[in-house]
Specification:
Rossmann fold; single chain; 7-stranded mixed sheet; Quinone Oxidoreductase, Chain A, domain 1; alpha/beta; 391 residues; 29% helix
């Protein structure tokens, strides 16, 4: 079959690879219909996630049709139109049974990497390095899905493919950012990053009762989408001082909730010397992640407020204002998305017309156009929000 494979930093190639097959009785094989790029893929392309190997298939946000199933798959059938949550749970361990499936004890068959780096193993993720299980990704014609009864969700009637594909990752990630922040009616929320996850976090914050949501980015088309599609108040960080602007917009109080939908590769152009400090240390291998957004959120958030972090970080950060965070009494919530907890709820929001992720899809390309699609997504040209491949 055809697949889009990682072969090094910024080196993607469409290759012929072996078809996936059932390895365990609870597996299914999905024929991929749509597979989206994701901002976290850029960390792979840029070489910030170790343990990638030449030939690894990337991609983790997808929708398709079940074409084969193992003998122990009970609730799914051939022909089902399904999305698969990008972060794999087993459905049986303590974390999965408590709704925290991205902390699964069993879905990562190569736990030694994350145990060495983080102290405990993480869950497996499709197409996201051998530290996260070494699973083949979804930018391919077919993909094997383990623990299928737990990780696959049938797409309800009335929900289009273009809406459903983002229930695999972007929608639950944004929804979880709002949910774990404990947003209360009347809250003012600030969201850093207006990519796919940020857009979903904005809309989710409103669904949970936020009175106002401020969207922070530097790309006019993304700020416009945040305003027109998600209802946010846009803030271009290249034109204003973010701290001063947020204090002015909140009567000097600061946002109740600050959401990081950016992660380890924050631009931080507005932070001047701080940005170049991070870039230099990252280039020299003395710091793995650029925490410009985290520092800014600590400064801007109101006293006693909450920071919700779903932008992906991988390693170590430097110059973190722990003193400000402690003395302001801030609460930190963070993590990879527990999509199995949210998938059905998100489909219900879509069916009711309360959430429509389909506008994230700005470019639909063939798998053969994968390298060009990622280049467009990375450089944010042609008003690209998300490229979705149709193998």
């Amino acid at each position: 079959m055809k697949a889009l494979c990682w072969n090094g930093v910024n080196d993607l190639r469409v290759e012929r690879v072996e078809d996936p097959r059932i390895l365990n009785p609870h597996d299914v094989i999905v024929k991929v219909a749509l597979s989206s790029v994701c901002g976290s893929d850029l960390h792979l392309l840029d070489g910030y996630v170790p343990t990638m190997r030449p030939g690894d298939i990337i991609g983790h946000e997808f929708l398709g049709e079940i074409v084969e199933k193992g003998p122990d798959v009970r609730y799914l059938n051939r022909g089902d139109r399904v999305i698969t949550v990008s972060i794999i749970g087993c459905g049986k361990c303590w974390h999965c049974e408590n709704g925290d499936s991205s902390l699964c004890d069993n879905s990562n068959p190569k736990p030694q990497y994350s145990e060495a780096a983080y102290g405990h193993c993480t869950a497996g993720i499709f197409g996201y390095s051998h530290a996260f299980g070494g699973y083949a990704g979804s930018h391919a014609e077919y993909i094997r899905v383990p623990y299928a009864d737990f990780n696959c969700f049938r797409v309800p009637e009335g929900v289009s493919d273009e809406q459903a594909v983002f229930v695999s990752d972007a929608a639950p990630t944004g929804y979880m950012a709002a949910d774990m922040a404990g947003i209360r009616p009347g809250d003012l929320v600030a969201v850093w990053g207006c990519g796919g996850v940020g857009q979903m976090a904005i809309r989710s914050a409103y669904l949970m009762g936020a009175e106002r949501v401020i969207a922070i980015d530097r790309y006019p088309d993304r700020l416009q989408a945040a305003q027109m599609k998600a209802g946010a108040e846009p803030l271009d960080y290249t034109r204003v001082d973010v701290f001063d602007a947020l204090q002015a917009m909140t009567g000097g109080r600061g946002p109740d909730v600050c959401i990081d939908a950016v992660g380890m590769e924050a631009d931080g152009y507005d932070t001047g010397l701080e940005y170049w400090y991070d870039r230099t240390k990252q280039a020299m291998g003395l710091e793995s992640d650029r925490p410009a957004v985290l520092r800014q959120m600590v400064e801007c958030c109101r006293k006693g407020g909450t920071l919700s972090i779903v932008g992906v970080y991988g390693g170590m950060i430097d110059k973190f204002p722990m003193g400000a965070a402690m003395n302001k009494g801030l609460t930190f919530r963070m993590g990879q998305q527990h999509g199995q907890r949210y998938a059905e709820r998100l489909f219900e929001h879509i069916r009711k017309g309360e959430l429509d992720p389909s506008y994230l899809l700005t470019h639909r390309l063939s798998l053969e156009d994968g390298p060009e699609g990622y280049a467009m997504f990375k450089k944010k040209t042609d008003h690209c929000m998300r490229v979705v491949f149709a193998p």
